[in-house]
């Protein structure tokens, strides 16, 4: 009980005392709340008074005060309102209802408010509160975690040092019976409070220091700290702590068999506890008086105190307290030779003892289960880290190959060297992957799929370079030839020849640009993270732009371009993909249509399917050519490459590409796309 009471002082009492301008005693708080304006300081005073009522087990009053804090705080738009409410509800759950899990839940919510509103002055205290709740749950790992977070903030000078944080660390060590290690933290906390002249904090720490010295058999030092703390608690009228000191001093006198002095202090603790209606403290005082009178062989007087202590223990439903009181009653009745009552209370005590043993066993089992689950999670974390390393390696491999693909487009002269580098990188990657596979066999299937994708990428690159060497080298060669001729023998170029060269170069450059745009679009579409961007398209504007692009090449062959679609036709799809599709189909149609021929473009929508046809009056395609038209091989020509892009882009838009042709009667390409 003494550990719990002290822990409660630090979880809640210490933070209440931080507002020096606001009174801390019950009477002065009542006067303050009757006379002062309802501003933010008034809300702070309400918080202090609510805390006092929680300690006094006045649930109805504390509930009403918390509700008033919430209403007034929202009215005043006080950002600490929710923080105060959650902190007080945490105190209620911990002290009135002894529901530590609920207390922890509210303490964590209070921490969320600290984060949300950056209440840096409350951060360390709230961390200490959370640590205290974990201590009461016997979760010392989390208790130490939050306590050390608070210590780190203080030692990094990111927060004002609080003695309570050092005391919280000490309390964890004390719970583990490590009293000698706890002592420096308590002394450090006392030093901080003495620098601030914080009498309340020093008094609470004297209580704790006295307890540690008592546990280590140094009773003179224990008595010194208890009496010094009692004097400070009396000076600041901290009656709750006065009652606690009286109980502890009485226990020390009882150990010295100075029963007269022990009785004086126990009776004073009883009087204060009754006055403040502090049932936990009253129960302790009554139990102490009963044990004192039993030691003096005054069993009839002892019975009176043990009976009342039993009633309070029953009301608070504290198993350990109920066991102690019932056991003491059994001993008293036995000494009075009332064996009937002695047996009844002994039986109750035995049942309670069995329950306590069962709870202890359950707690031990749960602790073992928690340790097992923690170890299991740690193993899972290690496994996931290995999986993450492997996946990162795969992603790096894939990313590296994508970069190589773009590099090939810009630096065609380094193709052979880049291919060799890619092969070496792949070899190195496969070697590392092989080593990783020995550690994690479960990833074999995924690695196989990745290797297949890498092989497919290399095959695609090889095919791509054959097109690059054929369709990109010719225009570049013409340009270099013309520039060299103009530089070295400009007199050989008359105006007509120069104009003819310039026209040829312009057409070659346009063809080169057209092919490069298709290559770049296709390369982007091969990337895993590439996604479509659908937008609304106005048909007349869109198709006019596409047709205008081909007007000159059509005019050069005296081919008429005809469009047939509704003026109000609109649809939604990826415009860039559709533009590449139509541009390739129109370019193909113009290329294979004889002079003075016709190329038509029609568009209709039927049941949310956009149907586009490109019809030419060319020489047509044979059945054998139709069968080979859309195979996966990239031919060494722009048209073969263009039809592959057209088919792939149509499928990426969720549609399909069909072709109908007859020798001597022209060809019709039909694109169907959902819109």
Low-confidence parts, pLDDT < 50 over ≥5 residues?
1-8, 10-20, 633-638
- Characterize the biggest β-sheet: 5 strands, mixed
Widest β-sheet, arrangement of strands: 2-4-5-7-6
Name of the CATH homologous superfamily of the largest domain: Tetratricopeptide repeat domain
- End-to-end separation in angstroms reads 74 Å
Helices, by number, come to 26
Secondary-structure class: alpha+beta
Query: What is the CATH class designation of the largest domain?
Result: Mainly Alpha
Task: Give an overview in words.
- This protein is an alpha+beta fold and 675 residues long.
- Helix content is 75%, strand content 7%.
- It has helices at 2-16, 26-35, 40-55, 59-75, 81-96, 100-117, 120-136, 140-155, 163-175, 179-195, 199-215, 219-235, 239-255, 259-276, 279-295, 299-316, 319-335, 339-410, 415-439, 444-471, 473-488, 495-525, 539-556, 575-591, 623-628, 638-652; strands spanning 535-538, 560-564, 570-573, 598-606, 609-616, 656-662, 666-674.
Entry summary:
With 675 residues, the protein is an alpha+beta fold. The chain contains 26 helices and seven strands.
